[in-house]
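I'm stuck. Please check this protein.
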Amino acid sequence: MNNSLVVYLKSLQTFCAFASTKFSSFAKSAWQSMKYSCRFICQTNPLFIQVTYFTLISFAGYEALKVLNSQDKSNTLKNLDVLFTSVSASTVSSMATVEMEEFSSKQLWVLAILMLIGSEVFTSVLGLHFMRAKFNKENSLNTRDHISHIDIESINVANFDPNTSHGTKDAVSFSEIRLANKQHVDPKTTVLLGTAVTVYLLITNLGSSLLIYLYLKLVPDAQEVLKRKGVGLFLFSVFTAISSVANCGFTPVNENMVIFQKNSGLLLLIIPQMLVGNTLFAPCLRFMVWSLQKITGKQEWCYILEHANAIGYRHLMSTRKCACLILTVVGFIILQTILFCALEWSSEALQEMSSYQKIVGALFQSTNARHAGETIVDLSSISSAIIVLYIVMMYLPGYTSIFTNYDDRYSKDEKRYNRKGLLEDWILSQLSYLAIFVMLICITEREALTTDPLNFNVFSLLFEIVSAYGNVGFSMGYSCKRLLKQDLHCKDASYGFVGKWSDEGKMILIIVMVFGRLKGYNLKGGKAWKLR
């Protein structure tokens, strides 16, 4: 009996050891497969990375806001509104379903962090990190092939002395060979570029915060406005600077920038902040790299300037493209400013402002219409012609240029070998998606469209959807005065029109904001559809 038990235990021990070995081998194999799969997805599908990233930070922001909300017993925000606000901040859309002053100071800091890490500049730094991993892999697999195919004659090797171990001062170094190779980028180049963009991000945000804070300290009228609101100068300065540079459009006060429409100095400080963070980011970055090349004289900076397409960083453009982009941005701003002044100069919204304040206000409003979303007027009170112009401006991508036709995402060689081209052709165009979203919202809000047609109409819904899709944040708002049947319980609020939508409509607009934040991956969609 004892012998049988011993044999059984030995067999069991042997089986457990065998199973443990196999399981360990299987787990290791599964981990390696998962690791390589994730690496493959990250290197071949940047859209997947972006979707995952914005999903994670949106839900992390939601949890943080929810925890801080539960700590404040006087604050009773709905879970859906908290999630909506988190997504709106992380996608830098500034669409609002609640008033900003309902958030505590701690919650406002959470929103500021979401705007910062969701901004175009910050996410592009993360993109450079993944690009470096891709270049590392390519270079490790093809180093020998790279060196053997380099045109050595294009480098000065005339003074190389084969009888010495190091050659003369003009001998070719391996780093020079790698820099001379146009087809395979040195990972160190992306590291250097990533450092430059990070410094750019810090300078723009910290510098903008300091400028706004100094203005508030020096102008008593602006201080008094914030004191009445119970908003600290430091919080307002940092929050508004991050929001402006990120082109989000949130401010810590309910009225946005309407209460500062007479503070022309503050508006003039914020205008360049909005431009350097989005529509003019590429020209400013090129100027920064050019300045570093002149100051340091490093070959790497020169390579970055001359081989922007090889690096593949979409914000790194040639001098010609940057010039065309600047002309386009300035042209759009001038066009909007002229039309705004022509139609709204004597309007009720600007009647208490001086001529100088009106011009600065029009310039500020026109700059915001592209992507930033801050406003000094009630949009429901301005001319319909301007509203239509704003819809067009909000729809246009940040790097729209009317002077040249180019693609910032792919070089000519990359386009030639782009295996996703056929799939992109069959994807619907941006206008098709907007039409689908409008129809869906019309379905969810069909009851309000019937009972409250002055507030809920197709034009107002379209404006809100295009604003969310363009990540702008403009809204026509909601007015109890426009109700056909007066409701004593109706209360006007400063949040956006979407705040009055159904829960289903808000959920759809969340999808629209995320979709709009990633619209850069569908700029060429719908090519297979031919209208004749």
About this structure: Residues 319 and 419 are 29 Å apart (CA to CA).
